[in-house]
């Protein structure tokens, strides 16, 4: 059953990745590296905010529903609204800080883009609520199809905007329209669901769970966005950000394969634990790592051997300097994807202290490794050095989470998890 859900999930994610790459190709080839760089910088702020707030409350709902399937949506919606208010205050504070900074750390264009992209996320609230609720109920295909259609509309909007000659601002408003359209069906779906009654105690429980998992989502947000923000602070031109984004985005798109199954594993592991099916969990972990290795390792090998030709063919010859970034991005995506189930394993087993500690250390590692590598500039290129720093941080995270999970079950180790069936066969 899990294998079927994972297969469907991977298929949907692969198609979604293809459309994402296609829209990036249009922006890169027609718009140019400067437009691509400014858009990627704004999106990095959107991803960071989404990871800190949206993903935390979504993960909390997955846990709450598995603890009590009668949990309604009213309390989930209340917490979501509360976090949106906090997000708005943080964005206003950021804009004020940039205005008071000497000459402004970011340009007026970049600030405008950042605000627009944050507003886009508000429009997507019905989609986040509906997709997460369907994931909690293990209606995985339905949840993924809703997200798939949203991403399809957004990517079509990007392509249309750049083909019609729109600037960064125009592209951002086209995406805004796509976000609004993609939220209509989830909104209608939500109206048919049971919202239940409001309970302050349940809201506090939501917040407590979200705070417990926030360390992980903050770390994940830093992984996706801190590199671009750091390069912006270091004064890297928008064109160089565009080149970096080409290599980095290909790795991040592959990483979506891992994150797309994260919700599945949290729900499945929670159910296994409640049913006392520990050996089944070990088997699922082992099978997952085996499948991911089969998919990823050939991709990394092909990218290493033919990466420059691939970039030239897809994006154009001027983007070939993104090749080293592409290699390191694929390596950190592979390492991170292998680690994701162990985060959910600890959380599902209520090892919240270990979960928070390892996530905090990973977040610190992202900041320290990228700053250190940027300062040392080993590769005589800030973009390549920062990409290598992310890879080192993901290796460090793998060590942290596998060691923490090994305390729960000694079968777990850094390189792979041995499933009970394989150990008995030996």
TrEMBL record:
Q: What GO terms fall under cellular component here?
A: plasma membrane
Keywords for this entry? Cell membrane, Membrane, Transmembrane, Transmembrane helix
Q: Which domain of life is it from?
A: Bacteria
Q: What is this protein called?
A: Polysaccharide biosynthesis protein
Localization:
Cell membrane
Kindly give the membrane topology term recorded for this protein: Multi-pass membrane protein
Say yes or no: keyword Transcription present.
no
InterPro entries from the xrefs? Poly_Biosynth_Transport
Record-annotated membrane-spanning stretches: 9-28, 34-54, 75-97, 109-131, 143-165, 246-269, 290-307, 319-338, 359-376, 382-401
């Amino acid at each position: 059953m899990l294998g079927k859900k994972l297969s469907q999930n991977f298929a949907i994610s692969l198609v979604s990745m293809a459309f994402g790459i296609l829209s990036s190709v249009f922006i890169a080839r027609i718009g140019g590296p400067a437009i691509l760089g400014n858009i990627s910088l704004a999106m990095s702020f959107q991803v960071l905010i989404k990871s800190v707030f949206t993903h935390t409350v979504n993960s909390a709902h997955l846990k709450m529903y598995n603890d009590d399937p009668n949990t309604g949506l009213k309390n989930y919606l209340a917490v979501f609204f509360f976090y949106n208010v906090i997000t708005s205050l943080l964005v206003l504070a950021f804009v004020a800080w940039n205005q008071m900074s000497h000459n402004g750390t970011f340009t007026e264009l970049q600030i405008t883009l950042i605000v627009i992209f944050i507003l886009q996320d508000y429009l997507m609230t019905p989609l986040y609520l509906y997709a997460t609720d369907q994931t909690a109920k293990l209606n995985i295909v339905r949840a993924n199809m809703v997200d798939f259609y949203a991403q399809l509309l957004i990517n079509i909007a990007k392509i249309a905007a750049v083909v019609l000659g729109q600037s960064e601002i125009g592209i951002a408003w086209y995406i805004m329209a796509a976000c609004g359209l993609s939220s209509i069906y989830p909104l209608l779906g939500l109206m048919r669901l049971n919202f239940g009654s409001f309970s302050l105690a349940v809201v506090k429980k939501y917040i407590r769970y979200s705070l417990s998992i926030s360390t992980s989502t903050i770390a994940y947000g830093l992984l996706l966005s801190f590199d671009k923000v750091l390069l912006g602070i270091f004064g890297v031109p928008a064109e160089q950000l565009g080149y970096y984004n080409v290599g980095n985005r290909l790795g991040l798109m592959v990483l979506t394969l891992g994150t797309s199954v994260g919700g599945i594993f949290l729900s499945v592991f929670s159910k296994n634990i409640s049913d006392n099916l520990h050996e089944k969990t070990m088997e699922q972990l082992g099978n997952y790592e085996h499948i991911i290795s089969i998919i990823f390792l050939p991709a990394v090998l092909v990218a290493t051997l033919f990466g420059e030709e691939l970039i030239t063919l897809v994006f154009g010859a001027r983007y070939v300097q993104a090749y080293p970034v592409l290699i390191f991005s694929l390596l950190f995506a592979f390492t991170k994807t292998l680690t994701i189930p162990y985060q959910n394993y600890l959380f599902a087993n209520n090892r919240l202290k270990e979960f928070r500690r390892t996530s905090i250390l990973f977040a610190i590692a992202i900041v320290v490794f990228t700053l250190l590598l940027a300062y040392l500039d080993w590769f005589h290129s800030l973009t390549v050095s920062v990409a290598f720093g992310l890879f080192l941080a993901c290796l460090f995270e793998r060590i942290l989470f596998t060691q923490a999970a090994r305390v729960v079950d000694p079968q777990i180790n850094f390189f792979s998890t041995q499933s009970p069936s394989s150990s008995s066969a030996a």
